[in-house]
Amino acid sequence: MNIHEYQAKEVFRRYGIPTPQGIPAFSVAEATEAAKRLIHDTDNQVVVVKAQIHAGGRGKAGGVKVVKGAAAAEAAAKELLGKVLVTKQTGPEGKKVQRLYVEQGLAIKTECYLAAAVDRESKRIVIMASSEGGVDIEEVAEKHPEKIHKIFVDPAIGLMPYQTRSLAYGLGLSKKAQKSFGKLLGALAKLFVEEDCSIAEVNPMIVTEADDCVALDAKINFDGNGAFRHPGWEDLRDLAEEAQTETEAREAGLSYIQLDGNIGCLVNGAGLAMSTMDTIQHYGGQPANFLDVGGGASQEAVTKAFRIILRSHSVKGIFVNIFGGIMKCDIIANGVVAATKELGLEVPLVVRLAGTNVEKGKAILAESGLNITPADTMAEGAQKIVELAGKVA
Amino acid sequence: MSILVDKNTKVIVQGITGSAGTFHAGQCQDYGTQIVAGAVPGKGGETWQNPSGKGSAPVFDTMREAREATGANASLIFVPPPFAADAILEAIDAEIELCVVITEGIPVMDMLKVRRVIDGQTTTRVIGPNCPGVITPDQCKMGIMPGHIHRPGKVGVVSKSGTLTYEAVGQVTALGMGQTTAVGIGGDPINGTGFIEILEMFEADPETAGIIMIGEIGGAAEEQAAAWIKDNFTKPVAGFIAGVTAPPGKRMGHAGAIISGGQGTAAAKIEALQAAGAKIAPTPSDMGKTIQALLS
Lengths: 393, 296
Prior knowledge:
- The structure holds 2 protein chains of 2 kinds.
- Chain A is an alpha+beta fold.
- Chain A contains 13 helices and 18 strands.
- In chain A, strands 7, 8, 9, 10, 11 and 12 form a 6-stranded antiparallel β-sheet that branches. Chain A has a 4-stranded antiparallel β-sheet with strand order 1-6-2-3, with helices on one face.
- The longest helix of chain A is centred in the middle third of the chain and has 20 residues, at 175-194.
- Chain B is an alpha/beta fold.
- In chain B, the strands form 2 sheets. In chain B, strands 3-4-2-1-5-6-7 form a 7-stranded mixed β-sheet, with helices on both faces. A 7-stranded mixed β-sheet of chain B has the order 9-8-11-10-12-13-14, with helices on both faces.
- At the A-B interface, strand 7, strand 8, helix 4, strand 10 and helix 9 of A face helix 4, helix 5 and helix 8 of B.
């Protein structure tokens, strides 16, 4: 689960990580007021107006404006609010800016990259730092991996001072900055575990003229599985950042991602759902979505899934692909029949059932009198739906 | 022969009184698995009744009591995510040999700690979490897979994905072949057992003639397994990787990309497996045919 920079910085501050002074703003008037207040409080005319979207790469896409004075901040806010930002991480459709964060400007001596993440290979939390902040860090990682310093934190022991020192030396920090860095890193490692993060990134972490380390940017991605420990996460969710159908699906316990094609998919299991999409494309079609109904979906969940799929007007056919394990085929079949009747389904529907209670399931579909095309295998079902819905060039 | 489980496996079900636990413990028992006990804190002294009416098992408060009273050597976990890490650690503490974790949705921070404990001992092997379990046809079903699609035979199956495992098994059976053992290792970022450890067991199992290995995009486990196969695995491998056409996800930040360093795409995994001599099924409906061709 992603949150905005200004929210991540609130988390940072709670753990004692230094961040610039800043105020979130939801309108041009609020942004102007925030700029005035910061200029007054810091006695510095320079403020930064930052677009708040759930994606990185904002700077290069023009989403961060360094300006002098409240009038310039107002102009920047006017330009940014409502603008669709296309960055390297948003996808081609971009993201509309609906929130801003106005921050004090700080004099920067050096910029570094710092991030913590869960590393599958070492089964540890990896913390990565590089003095090559401010340039494309992924390019650095690819071409000069030796410039990315890494430590691996043992979950039973936690971050050790020697590890902090090795990163500080790697970054080439002064004695005073090392001390400040040590505090920042300790707090980052602590919050990463306690807040159930999967990624916490500071890009850049800056060293100020006074040799203090400050988190100039903050990105946090929470591990959704940890939600039961963090009731406060619900308040951090920005529904405007999610497609409406994706929000609805999440609330119904379905895993759904909207895509560009014309064949709706309803599948149980993420691996099967992905390979159903692969098979549709193999036969020349384009999936309209990824939808995993999970292990134990009810009849209601199936109806909800149909409704969500049909919300997209580009859907010209639906392929239901179920291999019943926990999920019984007769329950799915009842769900499919109920949903088809309730929604007055007008597009072709291919249903492939296998596994637990498959015969009962097939009988329910056959006896329903509805126009449902059965299939015995995933390949057969994919071929049939591609024929019925039409290939997409 | 088989790997991990057979007719002598004696199973304690942790969380046997919950709705998933009681249903699946019943299904496993009906399949022929020896369900010898349940372990549920606060329910010690009760008796679990198989919903099918065909059996029962005593329930204990702790894993240690359950193991000592029954001589069980395996545990099957249906405990909800907030308590699952505790349940796994209790099984390890009770020196259970095999612990299969079905629970989906365990926080990765919990699994990091559990994995640290797993790596510090050699008694307990943990399979999962978030997996369908392990089955040796006609001998022992420890998991939530539909038992009837399986048949004893010579093909080993190892997979990150639950329903794709069923897909592979169903095809193998439909073609008149069967399985030695089918193992779902789960697709979570941190799990108890990886591909390579299962491949080692299949290599050592004389009954297994060849295997189907099913991976998914993300992580580097398939690439590492491919490298291991190249040097160590002597039996035919039919592979499948799900997610060839998955669109690159919207993401935040660079950390994930820096860690993965170009690994993790379906193309990279397929290439690595092919370089190791594996035959890749062109669609998921071809997994059975692919291993059949390799074994004939």
